[in-house]
Design brief:
This protein is of the alpha+beta class. The protein contains three helices and six strands; from the N terminus they run βαββααβββ.
Length: 166
């Protein structure tokens, strides 16, 4: 995504470039809620969200021949100045929640079905408040053929039924 991803809390790339409006709309709503929740959970940035003018979550779009990317970042509501520290902390917390959710899911057998012995523990909302949001975002990303999520030096690639954490 180049320079437009600098300071971004999270970058999501989707393929193909032509996607359902409802799929993109639902994804944007869920990512917005998740990143705000992640930022509010950070002790350093939480007070910013309690004021009269909480940080604004921006998204930058970047289209290519084979896909589209969304770079999310927080800015100050009055000055529109970048809040890189808030953006990075929210992205780091949210991608960790996505990774935990992916690891919690049952693995497939050699024949494609979910393993019978795989145990999926219900998310504990008290200890892992982003788990539900992460599950919803992953579900929304399942509506597109391929996606990549990048934050805090971590990358998750999703394609069809396959997930790879890098």
């Amino acid at each position: 995504m180049g320079d437009s991803a600098a300071g971004a809390a999270l970058v999501i790339s989707l393929k193909p470039a032509s996607l359902s409006v409802s799929a993109v709309s639902a994804l944007l709503r869920e990512v917005q809620a998740a990143l705000r929740e992640a930022a509010r959970a950070e002790p350093d940035s939480s007070p910013l969200f309690d004021g009269d003018q909480p940080p604004v979550l921006n998204v930058r779009f970047d289209g290519t021949a084979d896909g589209v990317s969304f770079a999310f970042d927080f800015v100050d509501a009055s000055t529109r100045g970048a809040l890189d520290r808030v953006s990075r902390a929210a992205g780091r917390r949210f991608i960790a929640a996505l990774e935990r959710e992916l690891k919690r899911r049952p693995q497939r057998t050699l024949w494609g079905q979910a393993g019978v012995s795989a145990r999926r523990r219900p998310a504990d909302a008290e200890s892992d408040p982003l788990s539900g949001r992460a599950a919803i975002v992953l579900s929304e990303l399942g509506r597109v053929p391929a996606a990549s999520i990048v934050a805090a030096g971590r990358r998750i690639r999703l394609e069809d039924e396959t997930a790879e954490i890098l």
